[in-house]
Amino acid sequence: MCFPAIGAAIAPAAGAGVQTLLGISTVASIASPLVAYAGQQQQAKAQAQYQAQAQEAERQRFQQEQSAIRLKEAQEQIAANEELADIARSTKAAMGTATTLAANRNVTGLSLEAFYDDITRKAGDVEFRLAQQQGFRKTATGMALEQARFATQQRQIALSKPISRPSLALTGFQAFSGGLQAYATGRQIGSTYET
Q1: Which CATH architecture has domain 3-194?
Q2: pLDDT: which is higher, 180 or 160
Q3: Distance (Å, rounded) from C-alpha 122 to C-alpha 115?
Q4: 33 near 193, Cβ under 8 Å?
Q5: Using one digit for the tens of pLDDT, what is the confidence trace for 41-84?
Q6: Domain positions in the chain
Q7: Integer Cα distance of 48 and 70 in angstroms
Q8: Fewest CB atoms within 10 Å of the CB: 26, 111, 115, 171?
């Protein structure tokens, strides 16, 4: 048997194999972008879920921080109120003691009034300093809350990065383009075997 005869016998089988390969190549060219699209969709969905969870965790962290700041403020206010009550009790006791001492020493009139005024002035000075401290604490609390709000906004911005979502139109175009390219390559290869 001669070689041309063997080639003629194999040519139809080779042509059918080439057609099968071309079909597989075309399907793969079309399917590849679709599979990539599905993977990108899953990745975008997972990223969106992660972002939502992280944002919720940050929201809860911020609420806890605010609660801690407000709790500290309430504790400081209670302590200040207790101190004011102590000052009022001490002032009342000092006035009583002054009255008793004055009666025992026969101190009356302007001298007694001056003594009372001195006790009242000292109590007023302490109350004034306490009020100043409360004002400073209120300012510090306001600044701490503002700083916490700013920090959480920055964290939320960092967590809200754009999610890259795949384009169905672009995927369709890529699938169509790949299919056309595979078809054109197949026609070119097929025409080689036809001659």
Answers
A1: Orthogonal Bundle (1.10)
A2: 160
A3: 11
A4: no
A5: 788 888 888 899 999 999 999 999 999 999 999 999 999 999 99
A6: 3-194
A7: 33
A8: 111
DSSP state of 161: P
**Length of the chain, please?**
195
CA angle 14, 16, 19 (to 5 degrees): 110
Q: Residue 68 corresponds to which amino acid?
A: A
Alpha-helical runs (H) found in the chain: 3-105, 110-159, 168-194
Alpha-carbon distance of 159 to 155, in angstroms, equals 6
The pLDDT, as a whole number, for residue 44 is 80
Does the reported pTM lie above 0.70?
no
Residues 164, 41: contact at Cβ < 8 Å?
no
Which tokens in the block code for residue 43? 């990745």
CA distances to 9, 86, 133, 192 from 140, in Å: 95, 25, 10, 85
- Which has the closest alpha carbon to 26: 139, 182, 185? 182
Confirm if 10 and 167 have CB atoms less than 8 A apart. Answer: no
- Judged by phi (left if over 0) then psi (alpha if -120 to 50, else beta), residue 162 lies in beta
Select from 18, 16, 45, 11 the least CA-distant residue to 188: 18
Count CB atoms within 10 A of the CB of residue 30.
19
Q: How far apart are CA 128 and CA 122, in angstroms?
A: 10
CA separation for the pair 164, 158 (Å, rounded): 15
